[in-house]
Design brief:
Shape: globular
Strand content: 5-15%
CATH topology of one domain: TIM Barrel
CATH architecture of one domain: Alpha-Beta Barrel
Strand order of the largest sheet: 1-2-3-4-5-6-7-8
Number of strands: 10
Structural class: alpha/beta
Number of helices: 14
CATH class of one domain: Alpha Beta
Distance between the termini: 31 Å
Order of helices and strands: HEHEHEHEHEHEHEHEHHEEHHHH
Helix content: 40-55%
Radius of gyration: 19 Å
Length: 331
Amino acid sequence: MLKTRFTEAFGVEYPIAQGGMQWVGKAKLVAAVANAGALGFVTALTQPTPEELAKEIQRTKDLTDKPFGVNLTILPTITPPPYAEYRRAIIEGGIKVVETAGYKPQEHIDDFKAHGIKVIHKCTAVRHAASAERMGADAISIDGFECAGHPGEDDIPGLILIPAAANKIKVPMLASGGFGDGRGLVAALALGADGINMGTRFCVTQEAEIADSFKQQMVENDERATDLIFRTLHNTARVMKNKVSQEVVAIERAGNAKFEDVQHLVAGARGRSAMERGDTDDGIWSAGMVQGLINDVPTVKELVDRIVAEAEEIIEGRLQSMISRYAEAAE
């Protein structure tokens, strides 16, 4: 059994989490993750209102009696969502763990902790992780450059970012960005993390409520099939490479691009419509480099069981045999 500070602190069987994913972190997937022994998160802002979030929390509870959490991502916007009302829905829903991400989480961390809720803060830099720890976060999810979505502006891959964070962070830490199999889990543990957080890999499972065409596209894609957009706007996002992402990249490369120049291409409504229609070329879709390691569409349980079994075999078999062979040679 793989027991770490993360499994002990959050009461789950395996050191694996499914972090918040816009439009994907819904009851069916989250409950499947929980039932498989990992920690899943309902994505709060996928739900259009705090009232709908309360219903989604209850739907998840109807499908599992195991621990799960809610993700609340705080982003600077012209018209911010009613975060306090979403927080209230989370608290009143009896949730025991929240994944926060984004901008200035202090008031959210304070409110959650005042109600006995543990907080995992997701960030992309060691300095931000240290800040969140000082704010009272119970755990950190450190997100490397390989990740889907927003990798920050420092471009530090996990191989450096994870141990650099482990050198500074005292609370349990999840490694995010580029993880999808048992090899990655063992590597994360070796680098100083207490578990892994997977997004793209959980999208490509039978319980993820997205069009099969998107899942099959990610199976077919290799590790080069992502684009970095919004680089020139200093709000970098890694997305699945398609016609729309290539158009955005071309506009930015032409120089002096403003958000208004690409807004019609990257609008959330367009992306959601494309996902609902199964059109992989008519919108922006977050996906990581880990696509190059995805070769099938298993159930969540099959995926989690496989990752754990592979990790245990690597630790007990391949790595242990290396130590044994070295010891025998030394004798």
